[in-house]
Amino acid sequence: MESIIVLGGAGYIGSQACKALHTAGIQPVTYDNLSLGHESFVKYGPLIKGDVLDTALLSETIRRYDASCVMHFAALASVADSVTDPASYYQNNVAGTLSVLEAMRATDCRSLVFSSTCAIYGQPEVVPIDESCAKNPINPYGRSKLICEQMMNDYSAAYGIRSIALRYFNAVGADFDGEIGEFREHETHIIPRAMMYLLGHLDEFVIHGSDFPTPDGTAIRDYIHVKDLAEAHISAARLLAGGHAGGAYNLGQGTGYSVLQVLSAIERITGRKMPAITGGRRQGDPAILIAQPALAREVLGFAPRYSSLQDIISSAWTWHQKAHPQKSLSAREAGAR
Ligand SMILES: NC(=O)c1ccc[n+]([C@@H]2O[C@H](COP(=O)([O-])OP(=O)(O)OC[C@H]3O[C@@H](n4cnc5c(N)ncnc54)[C@H](O)[C@@H]3O)[C@@H](O)[C@H]2O)c1
Ligand SMILES: O=c1ccn([C@@H]2O[C@H](COP(=O)(O)OP(=O)(O)O[C@H]3O[C@H](CO)[C@H](O)[C@H](O)[C@H]3O)[C@@H](O)[C@H]2O)c(=O)[nH]1
To answer: Whole-prediction pTM value?
Structure first.
């Protein structure tokens, strides 16, 4: 059976990729240090507990499974934390990716699919953003990912390790079977925070900024379902297996929604009131991020199927209720809403 090594496979997006690989008949071998991920998310193949900085263990794992490809999700990914603790981001994300490339160089595996981000574009001059737009990241997280892409290009030219960087916009939603979803110790993302608020795990939900230059004053993002992202990884791995030289592709829908539009859809779909407090902007939050996904459509055949607000919110809501059943029935929630 073909095996693919999934670095960070115990995390939110990596675990969805594992499920998609398993469904496609490929064995996903999760390699994760479990610093942020969950062992319970590793359901579709073996787990190797290890750090991406451990080059020797990585090489050994790639060889042991005779992996056809490496998918690299393992990173720190909080914009705000990267500003206060850049050292961790350069160590984990940049040195970590260098270690991955070195581990691959020591083996025969020459295909890498990498989790990049729209944060590499910084404050875009034009939207929708296409792949040729200026890359001026405005925080260490975005810079760390841009450096990784540059290293990957150099390793491709010099050592023939071909890579596809997938620049996700906002990953959202959960598995439609309710098996895996989005859950972090210190959650900052809009959909899980809203779900946690509705389930009584947060005392308030704050809208970060109402004075953006957008029609309703709240920031606009391009939300893409993790299942669509997971399937794009399989397309990317297949392209590389077919000899594709590598490249970088935006993964978004090409449509944006404001924070207020998302909150209103949450009220409609969950049938719960979502009273929100308006707060100030978060540091480094751009007003509008919308992808131009034409290149991904042309090259990867990327055609999002699960990214309507209805599918995104209903899958997340189902999973969050299942993940926290005891608390979802709390007296506070039942009485107050
Ligand atoms: N969530 C988003 O909206 C989004 C958007 C753009 C890009 N990304 C990128 O996608 C990838 C996955 O994001 P996610 O939301 O699933 O994050 P996540 O935190 O849920 O998953 C990351 C996983 O990597 C593991 N990990 C981290 N550092 C490691 C290390 N040094 N060695 C081994 N394992 C390590 C963690 O334990 C975790 O399981 C990241 O590279 C992130 O930068 C995410
Ligand atoms: O409690 C919250 C949480 C979020 N938001 C708003 O909701 C939108 C989406 O915020 P998220 O935190 O869900 O996502 P980001 O757009 O900040 O982050 C995403 O894009 C980043 C690049 O800008 C990184 O790639 C990151 O990993 C990825 O999740 C933003 O306008 C944010 O200000 C709120 O109003 N309240």
So the answer is: 0.96
Number of domains in the chain: 2
Cβ(13) to ligand 2 under 6 A? no
Residue 170: CB within 6 Å of ligand 2?
Answer: yes
Say which CATH number the domain at 270 has: 3.90.25.10
Q: Could you identify the atom of ligand 2 that is nearest to the CA of residue 284?
A: 23
Based on the domain organization, do 217 and 115 belong to the same domain? no
Q: Is the CB of 207 under 6 A from ligand 2?
A: yes
> Does residue 303 lie within any of the structural domains?
yes
Q: Among candidates 250, 2, 218, which has minimal Cα distance to 124?
A: 250
Q: What is the pLDDT along the chain (337 residues), one digit of tens a residue?
A: 999 999 999 999 999 999 999 999 999 999 999 999 999 999 999 999 999 999 999 999 999 999 999 999 999 999 889 999 999 999 999 999 999 999 999 999 999 999 999 999 999 989 999 999 999 999 999 999 999 999 999 999 999 999 999 999 999 999 999 999 998 888 999 999 999 999 999 999 999 999 999 999 999 999 999 999 999 999 999 999 999 999 999 999 999 999 999 999 999 999 999 998 999 999 878 999 999 999 999 999 999 999 999 999 999 999 999 986 544 333 333 333 3
Pocket lining: 55 vs ligand 1, CB cutoff 6 Å: no
What gap in Å lies between CA 208 and CA 230, rounded to an integer?
A: 29
Q: So what's the ipTM on this one?
A: 0.97
Q: How far, in Å, is the centroid of ligand 2 from the Cα of 276?
A: 16
User: Considering only CA atoms, which of 109, 41, 102, 37 is closest in space to residue 71?
Assistant: 109
What 3-state DSSP class applies to 95? helix
131 in contact with ligand 1, CB cutoff 6 A:
no
Looking at the structure, tell me whether residues 200 and 228 fall in a common domain.
Answer: no
Question: Ligand 2 center to residue 190 CA distance, Å?
Answer: 6
Ramachandran quadrant class, 8 (left: phi over 0; alpha: psi -120 to 50; beta: rest): left
In this structure, which ligand is nearest to the CA of 72?
Answer: 1
Residue of the CA atom closest to atom 10 of ligand 1: 115
Q: Is 44 a catalytic residue?
A: no
Q: Specify whether 89 is located in the same domain as 106.
A: yes
Length of the chain measured in residues: 337
